[in-house]
Amino acid sequence: MIVIGVPAEEKDEPRIGLTPETVKKLVKAGAKVKIRSGAGLRSHFSDEAYKEAGAEIAGSDESAVAGADIVLTVRRPKAEIAKSMKKGAALIGMLDPFSDAEGLAALAKTGVALFAMELMPRISRAQSMDVLSSQSNLAGYKAVVDAAAAFERALPMMMTAAGTVPAARVFVMGVGVAGLQAIATARRLGAIVTATDVRPAVKEQVASLGAKFVAVEDEEFKQAETSGGYAKEMSDAYKKKQAALVAEHVKSQDIVITTALIPGRPAPKLISKEMIESMKPGSIIVDLAVERGGNAELAKPGEIVEHKGVRIFGKLNLPGQVPVNASSLYARNLQAFVEPLIDKEKKTLAVNWDDDLVKGTLIARNGEIVNAMIAERLGGAKGGAAAPAKLPANGTAKKNGSKRQAKGTKL
Ligand code: NAD
Questions:
Q1: In angstroms, rounded to a whole number, what is the distance separating the alpha carbons of residues 127 and 137?
Q2: Distance (Å, rounded) from C-alpha 43 to C-alpha 34?
Q3: pLDDT digits (tens, 9 = 90+) for 263-305
Q4: Among residues 43, 130, 349, 399, which one has the fewest Cβ atoms lying within 10 Å of its Cβ?
Q5: Is residue 223 packed enough to be buried (19+ CB in 10 Å), middle (13-18) or exposed (0-12)?
Q6: Residue 395 CB–ligand 1 contact under 6 Å
Q7: Statement: residue 172 has pLDDT above 60
Q8: Comparing C-alpha atoms, which of 188, 175, 176 is closest to residue 148?
């Protein structure tokens, strides 16, 4: 019988990759499911609920993963967990493949097959497995809710006998999955919303949500989307024009939510210190790109930086602040990916190594990094998909500069 194991996540990760709902589906598909006692508690899923759904409760992480054919995690686990797994088993989670190369190499060496859900190809067949979308959507929502809660004014316009409260102005930079949800949430709260992106396809989506599109719409903008639907790195000339437009616009904004990312590159710098200084005291910037270097100049990962009365939120793991929904959606993403890996008749692990979704997400097998893109990015061999990678000491993206005059508060 195929066994699926789920260890507990680290202290700073409230989400979990298995819910009672997905236990039922996986058991029905022929799997035996084991979960570490208490692993779902921070998402409010009790051991009893898992047991009722058909899971077995394990007393330790080791016993949850020992003998498992598939181990499901939210984050990349410590190598000790993989060492307790059997060789050839599959470890599936958001393994953060472009950072901490040493940690990744140690995991790969255990001989476990590593699958990074972040690398799921964005094709229609894989939509139900798209963890970036399921989590970014919640991040966009939470960014606005956090900003609204911290903002010392109201968001909607209110007409009262004592006078009118003006609507707050919210500017969303980067209109992917997170940005669209940020716009929708800010609109529901009654703010006047504007948004920008470098992809022309976004213009209509912004309008359909009742927001105004603000962008430099030149010839380069018309070509700015890749065939995969992502943004391209823009030319210096475009960046200059965009910066001038944003500088003018940002002055009048109360809340700015930045979500701009370019696949495989550091986040584009869109808000300079001067722009921050041009904003009214009490304004708030929430930088969702902070883990990839940040869109705002003074943003610091995990901190609220206050600069001349403007607060810049660099909160990490926003989906983890809505863990019940984030875990439910993430667990469904995992279940959708895992079910086709199970031979329902023989009840064994039956991975089709030629499947595009398997090839896209597989990063290591038989002790070697097998994803050519990651091997290359980690500074290793360029010799094709099966080439083992030489891993540099640390592949983490460079964090923002450390010489800051602004005041920082740990979140
Ligand atoms: P993302 O997280 O990579 O980037 C966020 C946004 O930042 C993007 O809209 C991007 O265009 C924008 N951006 C980049 N540089 C910018 C700059 N200099 N100024 C302003 N904005 C900038 O994006 P995402 O949320 O992953 O979505 C990217 C695309 O993928 C979208 O078209 C989305 O609809 C599409 N998508 C497809 C699927 C699917 O087919 N399964 C699933 C999810 C998303």
A1: 14
A2: 17
A3: 878 899 999 999 999 999 999 999 999 999 999 999 999 999 9
A4: 399
A5: exposed
A6: no
A7: yes
A8: 188
Give the pLDDT confidence of 7-60 residue by residue, as tens digits.
999 999 999 999 999 999 999 999 999 999 999 999 999 999 999 999 999 999
Burial bucket for residue 338 (CB in 10 Å: 0-12, 13-18, 19+): buried
Q: Is residue 120 within 6 Å of ligand 1 at its C-beta?
A: no
- Assess contact for 168 and 255: CB atoms under 8 A: yes
> What is the Å distance from ligand 1's center to 292 Cα?
14
Residue closest by Cα to atom 39 of ligand 1: 122
List strand residue ranges (DSSP E) for 293-361, in order.
303-307, 310-313, 342-343, 348-349
Point out the residues that are catalytic.
Answer: 122, 127, 130, 133, 230
Atom of ligand 1 minimally distant from the CA of 234: 18
The residues, any chain, with a CB within 8 Å of residue 124's CB and separated by 6 or more, are none
- Probe target for ligand 1 pocket from 171, 183, 262, with the most ligand atoms within 8 Å of CB: 262
- Residue 307 tokens, joined: 């600069």
- Best residue among 123, 245, 258, 261 to mutate for probing ligand 1's pocket (most ligand atoms within 8 Å of CB) is 261
CA distances from 118 to 5, 403, 409 (A): 20, 32, 30
Close Cβ partners of 403 (under 8 Å, ≥ 6 residues apart): none
Q: Return d(Cα 43, Cα 353) in angstroms, integer.
A: 33
Strands 310-313 and 303-307: antiparallel
**Mean of the per-residue pLDDT values for the chain?**
90
pLDDT-based confidence at residue 409 (cuts at 50, 70, 90): low
User: Is 38 strand, coil or helix?
Assistant: coil
Q: Is 104 in the pocket of ligand 1 (CB under 6 A)?
A: no
Strands 303-307 and 407-410: antiparallel
Structure tokens given for 354: 């030629």
Question: How many angstroms separate the most distant Cα atoms in the chain?
Answer: 73
What pLDDT is stored for residue 376 in this prediction? 76
Measured CA to CA, the distance from residue 375 to residue 365 in angstroms comes to: 13
Give the span between the Cα atoms of 213 and 348, in whole angstroms. 51
pLDDT higher than 80, residue 403: no
